[in-house]
Amino acid sequence: xxxxxxxxxISKVKDAITKALQQYSGWCxxxxxxxxxxxxxxEGNYGQAQxxxxxxxxxxxxxxxSAANDIISVDALQRIQKSVAHEIYHCLQYAQNLAGxxxxxxxxxxxxxxxxxxxxxxELYPIAPGSGVVNLGIFPEHYDPRxxxxxxxxxxxxxxxxxxxxxxxxxxxxxxxxxxxxxIGQKSVASDLADLAxxxxxxxxxxxxxxxxxxxxASRTIKYLSSGDLIELTSxxxxxxxxxxxxxxxxxxxxxxxxxxxxxxxxxxFPVNTTNSLQFPDTATTLRCSxxxxxxxxxxxxxxxxxxxxQPVASGxxxxxxxxxxxxxxxxxxxxxxxxxx
Length: 342
Known about the structure:
5-stranded mixed sheet; alpha+beta; Jelly Rolls; Neutral Protease, domain 2; 7 helices; 2 domains; 4-stranded antiparallel sheet
């Protein structure tokens, strides 16, 4: 696309201000926001929001949005509008929960401050498949399941993916904002993980929703709810394949460990002309798992102690995929049992 004129960019900024204020209306009391449009990128940022306080009390919010011409092949006007929606939501975060934010150690509030702001700008201005906007920065598309949600790289922007998932389960933008308004910043990764593991918030409840998020990620079904477009993930859950060739009647116990608020996939494969079974851990206090037999698309939930028979196939090896997640404060560890019956 050609470079949009200044008047067009100003018009798009006005539209974005109106759309953001309409969406965020009623979420907190009245306060002033001063918005400036500048013609350059400031310190690598396309937008900035700065609360103005008397030291303890929020006063007003200053926002700068870059209207610079992009040299990257993206929809520059959408980028500008996303920046407006993003920075205005930062102002709401400060107005509602300045004290909760300030209790965090440096960098420990990134994942929930930037993650929810990126989530809000994504629902107001979702990224269309193939648009190229993801080349411009960190978006939910870049979520890395190898690390916990509180350690997502790039200032935690990709943590927004979890909040997009919540919308598909019946939660609302307002629910998520209520959680943000009460969130207390933490001093370390360990305290962040412990805080999530203990969360019983009716609005989010990270432990309750974590395994559903893992399944949706592995199934690639998470969407921008406002547009219905699938979020085009750039990575897969970590996976490993384990081959097992046991004697008839032989049983083997296999341990499995998953880091806090992460998930992974293990594929157990078996030789031809053998019948095997896999038993999931007896308790559901650590790992939560789902499974998928060869040839199936969807994941089935695995209750504690469930035993699955893996039948031989006409050609090739038989297998079972297990997707397990951990929503405990520390690493989850448990044991699977494999037995050959024929």
